[in-house]
Amino acid sequence: MTSVQSRPAEPVTTGAAVSRLLSFSRQFRAAGLVLVLVVLVVATAVANPRFLSPQGLRDLLLAAALTVLLATGMTLVILTKGIDLSMGSVLGLSAFGTATVLSSNPGLPVVAGAAVGIAIGAACGLVNGALISLGKVPPLVATLGTLYVFRGLVYFWAGGSRISAGDMPRGFLGLGTGRILGIPYLMLIALLVLVVTGVYLGRYRAGRDLYAIGSNPEAAALAGIPIMRRLMWAYVAAGAMAGLGGVLYAARFGTVDASAGSGLELDVVAAAVVGGVAIFGGSGTVFGAALGGLILTVINNALPALGIDQFWQRAIVGALIIGAIGLDRLVSLRLAASLRRSSSRVR
After folding, report:
1. Distance of alpha carbon 148 from alpha carbon 10, whole angstroms
2. Distance from C-alpha of 287 to C-alpha of 293, rounded to nearest angstrom
3. What is the DSSP letter of 50?
């Protein structure tokens, strides 16, 4: 009787060890990122005191807001073992659409113009989701294709023209320059989206399903998780966040043309990966992705202030990405070894 009851303790102990390993790896990653951020900020402030001036901090937060917002959306799709390379193009299309609507209709409420931009982004996300969940097109291929399609739409729509700040309502432009207690509206909006998404992923079943899909799609299907619906939702939500990013881009810069957001998708992927979102899917948090986005923004702003060549700026970001992926791979190998030991003990 005693031996029968004692057997289950082994896998439970191993499962606890696996959980501890995951928890340690996340804490180690977060602590490392915070340390890098602090060292970089302190070193830059010593070399250039204006870096931490009120205006310098404001510019830093404004620059980080879009990256944090889009990294939140990117996290949703990477968790499912996917990716969205079209985010920069979606942002550009939404930014130009929002600017066009507001400049053509002077009496239109700012909220209505913003809704148009978000709707454009959600529609683009719906296209991506349909290609991936219904058409079974690999996410890399599907979103690489839509990257060019959506960018082509922006160039066709713009026709070589651009919309300047003088064509848009002052209330809308105030969204890009206003602040509360020194914190820009743009960063507050990005943080609100970040917190809501983090709570959704952590406390709601639909959010946790994204982790299950990325960890083991076959097991998720056997568990009854509606994979197609969850994938569709993830890409629509990511598109809507990119659409909101387009609205904020137009409000911040005022002048919008067909090149808005070009290349931004690579910075967003880098932010998510550096922040601990496993490129292999199934692991990571939006808060880590936001921290990664903040670090990349600080790097892009601090290194020029230190007089460091642009080559080294990109090289450092690349090294961070490689290091993050290497760490994820190391953790996955340790987990696999722990599971194999657990299986052998059960036998």
Report:
1. 53
2. 10
3. G
The pair of three-digit structure tokens given for residue 39, joined into one six-digit string: 């060292």
| Tokens of residue 333, six digits | 């190998």
Helix (H) or strand (E) holding 179: strand 179-180
Around Cβ 1, how many Cβ atoms within 10 Å? Answer: 5
Tens of pLDDT, residues 293-321: 988 888 888 877 777 777 777 787 777 77
Side chain identity at 74, as an amino acid letter? Answer: M
Closest CA to 99 of 87, 117, 86, 115: 117
* Domains of the chain and any CATH numbers: 26-346 (1.10.3470)
Q: Which two tokens stand for residue 327?
A: 């760490």
pTM assigned to the model: 0.85
Scanning the chain, the segments in alpha helix (DSSP H) are 2-6, 9-47, 54-79, 87-104, 110-129, 139-158, 170-177, 185-203, 205-215, 217-222, 227-253, 264-274, 286-305, 310-346
Cβ atoms 64, 184 nearer than 8 A: no
Per-residue pLDDT band for 59 (boundaries 50, 70, 90) equals confident
Please give the Cα distance from 272 to 264 (Å, whole number): 13
Q: Which residues contact 97 (CB under 8 A, 6 or more apart)?
A: 116, 117, 120, 157, 246
Show Cβ contacts of residue 240 under 8 Å, excluding neighbours closer than 6 positions.
73, 118, 121, 122, 125
Report yes or no: 88 and 218 within 8 Å, Cβ to Cβ: no
**For tokens 């601090």, what's the residue?**
302
Residue 180, strand partner residues: 183
> Tokens 């059960």 correspond to what residue?
346
